[in-house]
Amino acid sequence: MRYRPIGTDPADPRLGRFVPDDWQHLERYPLTALATKERPVRTPVVIGVNWYREFDDPEPDGKSGEMFIAKGGSVTTVRGGHCVCLEPGGTPDTDQSYNFYNQGAEGACVGFGWSRCMTLFNGDDYAARWLWDAAKKRDEWAETNPGDENGTSVRAAAEVLRELGHVEWQDEYSDDDWRRRESYTPDVKQGIRAFRWARTVDEVHAALGNHRADELGAVPLLNSWGANYPHRVWLPDEVLDRLIREEGEIAVPTDR
Predict the structure, then answer these.
(1) Contact predicate 196/35, CB 8 Å
(2) In this structure, what is the dihedral angle of CA atoms 130, 198, 214, 245, given to the nearest 10 degrees?
(3) Quick one: CA dihedral 164, 165, 171, 176, positive or negative?
(4) According to CATH, what is the number of the domain 24-255?
(5) 180: which DSSP letter?
(6) Is 44 helix (H, G, I), strand (E, B) or coil?
(7) Which residues, in sequence order, are CB contacts of 128 under 8 Å at separation 6+?
(8) What is the pTM of this model?
(9) 205-246 confidence digits (pLDDT tens)
């Protein structure tokens, strides 16, 4: 599979999010279809977007002390596609989750981004690679299959979580071989009830309900690249707006 915006496979295998072939899901299920009082608040948001070279090396902001990517709002080269979870207000993401959700060198970002979201909802750890496999079974690409290194779409994993649920992590899964993952049994109670799609930065901020994000004019990314990447980095709103317009998938889930 080639990543459509760059016309080739990403040099970094971790950048495994694929751009959907159609956008009916965004058109049929926009967040704005819900009345304002019915929209989720203080909820994690899962995004699938282009990943630019400027996102690789976060830098501290002298004024806020926070780690930023693309602080000046300027981006140049798309390196591939990535999926990450945005951190809502309220109880913050833990150091344990930061250490646990490390996708290594695989293109499993969709499974890890959504699993991080479910941990924020429920407090439990989840088998992120199982979700990666399950999403590849139901996405629109025949080339994506369990056991391969291909990525998948944010939509495919969201549909799995809504229909099948998720698999709670057990220590015995530590080898996590893909053939063994075929025997894991998901629990629908560990999934989501529904998901909608945000189309603007303001909608993302409203869903996150994160006061620090509102103060900084940026959103907090929880990446899945282990200790070599900061626990939390901030993406400026103007860059998020660009990513949304560049075929970004911005999922706002509702927990069960």
Answers:
(1) no
(2) 100
(3) positive
(4) 3.90.70
(5) H
(6) coil
(7) 101, 103, 108, 111, 112, 114, 115, 116, 224
(8) 0.97
(9) 999 999 999 999 999 999 999 999 999 999 999 999 999 999
